[in-house]
Amino acid sequence: MVRKTLVLCLAFLLCVSFVSAETLFSDDFESGLGEWTESVEYDWTTEYPAEKQVPGHTTGNDVAHADNCDTGCYLTLTDAIDLSDYEDVTLEFYRYVDKALDSGEYLKVEAYDGSSWNQIYYWTHGSGDDDTWHLESWDVPVGYLSEDFKVRYIAKMSGSREDAEIDDVELTGTLEAFCGNNVTEGNETCDGPDLGNQTCVTQGFDGGTLGCNAYCTGYDTSGCWSNSCAETDSGNDIWNVGTTYGTLNGSGYNDTDYCENNATVFEYYCSGDFKLSASTSCGTDTSNNYCQNGSVWTNTTDYYCAVGECEVSTSQTFTEWCQYGCTAGVCNAPPNTCTDTDGGFVVYTAGNVYGSLNGTPYNYTDTCGGPALQEWYCSSGFAYSSWFNCSMNGTGCTNGACY
Q1: Please, which residues have CB within 8 angstroms of residue 88's CB and are 6 or more apart in sequence?
Q2: What is the reported pTM?
Q3: Range of the domain at 383
Q4: In terms of domains, do 321 and 356 share one?
Q5: Residue 203 domain-assigned?
Q6: 9 has a pLDDT exceeding 70
Q7: Which three-class secondary structure state does DSSP give residue 238?
Q8: In sequence order, what are the beta bridge partners of 312?
Q9: Both 279 and 362 in a single domain?
Q10: Which of the residues 27, 61, 215, 402 could staple to 390 if both were Cys, CB 3.0 to 4.6 A apart?
Q11: Residue 365: is its pLDDT beyond 90?
Q12: In this model, does residue 4 exceed pLDDT 50?
């Protein structure tokens, strides 16, 4: 990195160096995503622009491209950039947002100020999704000029034809070196013990000892304390593993959600400035039968805990083949049948009826009871019997028939 410097030295040997703007970071994505880390959904790629060419670039230029990010695709600068010695820092990049984005889908940009991520840009349905490349320029506020500056791009869109793209990310700034004379001056926030009547309390803490950082660009609040709570997921969210961190009465804590067992998650979350926790079941497994192609299948839903968050999976398995078809997840019973070997209510011929009733087979034979005959016969697919007195015709009953 080359910079031009003009040095002015005063008689008491304190020097101020004014440095021309220099490039602190630059990535045109021609070498892939090597400078970046993906998380959550991994749908950032480098490829040619999906629809329109970046202004001033020729065909074949690679850009960072995201699509089909149902819950969010994160692209985070891997290595932090130390901005603590710089001022007039500017972040520039080209961005493209597909006009096909639905409500609730977006491309947003967040910057890390050394302690938390903060949103600096947000484009969504009806606001910035215009199928046009834009060159964005953000003057980085003093509060972000820390040793741990990072930037990340977060895309959320449900379809592969909905996309967002980034190109030519560049961070520039001017170095000014003047700090250590214990007098706050120029663009310094503080210098050594000269804190400008500021204390931990005026900085929003509950107590402690305030200091000045080594670069005179901000206060050192490491000696301050107050109750605080922050988390990386969304409250009591059992479906996403997160870490809850902060301080309580001057002592720090950092707790990550974990699985108590394969069905229960122990969740940490914030309530105001205080940390709470809860042990929660991921859910009750369910299964239900349904009909498919005339057979019984079973749909199973399994709730479980893995890596500090609840998960749910579903599966469909074959259960039973149905000879007579399927209704509401149950095999249909065989149809009712009835066959009479003597052809009906015929008292002078012995016979039997046989068939199936509600899936159960049967077989009944005409029988004698003294001079009376129990005659079996079929009617509308069902078996019936009636007693007939053979003596009424001057005969008797033998071997299942009147004679």
Answers
A1: 21, 139, 173, 174
A2: 0.44
A3: 337-402
A4: no
A5: no
A6: no
A7: coil
A8: 303
A9: no
A10: 402
A11: yes
A12: no
Residue with tokens 């940490």: 268
Residues 286, 358, single domain; the answer is: no
Give me the half-sphere count of Cα atoms (radius 13 Å) on the Cβ side of residue 398. Answer: 3
Residue 302 belongs to some domain of the structure: yes
Dihedral angle over CA of 214, 219, 224, 227, nearest 10: -130
Asked if 205 and 227 count as a contact pair (C-beta separation under 8 A), the reply is no
Rg (CA), the chain: 41
Residue 125, CB-side half-sphere exposure with 13 Å CA sphere: 10
Dihedral pair phi/psi, residue 143, rounded to 5° = -65, -15
Question: 125-129, 177-181, 199-203, 303-307: which has the minimum mean pLDDT?
Answer: 177-181
What does the pLDDT average to over 289-301?
A: 96
Cα(163)–Cα(159) distance, integer angstroms = 8
Q: Which residue, chain included where needed, has tokens 């060159």?
A: 135
Q: Are 220 and 258 in contact (CB under 8 A)?
A: no
Instruction: Decide if 252 contacts 293 (C-beta within 8 A).
Output: no
Task: Please state, in angstroms and rounded to a whole number, the distance separating the CA atoms of residues 271 and 150.
Answer: 28
Q: Spell out the residues 6+ positions from residue 310 whose beta carbon is closer than 8 angstroms to its own.
A: 238, 239, 265, 280, 282, 283, 303, 304
Give the chain's length: 403
Contacts of 320 (CB under 8 A, 6+ apart): 295, 296, 331
* Span 101-153, pLDDT tens digits: 999 999 999 999 999 999 999 999 999 999 999 999 999 999 999 999 999 99
User: Do 36 and 149 sit in the same domain of this protein?
Assistant: yes
Query: What are the tokens at 22?
Result: 């220099």
Compute how many other C-beta atoms are within 10 angstroms of the C-beta atom of residue 123: 21
Show the tokens assigned to 46: 């480098």
DSSP letters for 194-223: B-TT--TTTTT-SEE--EE-TTSSSEE-TT
Residue 15: what pLDDT? 36
Quick one: which of 311, 303, 313 has its CA closest to 257?
311
Tell me how many domains the chain contains: 3
**Would you state the pLDDT for residue 226?**
86
- Can you list the positions of beta strands (E) in 222-343? 224-225, 228-231, 243-248, 251-256, 258-261, 264-271, 274-281, 286-292, 295-306, 309-320, 326-327, 330-331, 337-340
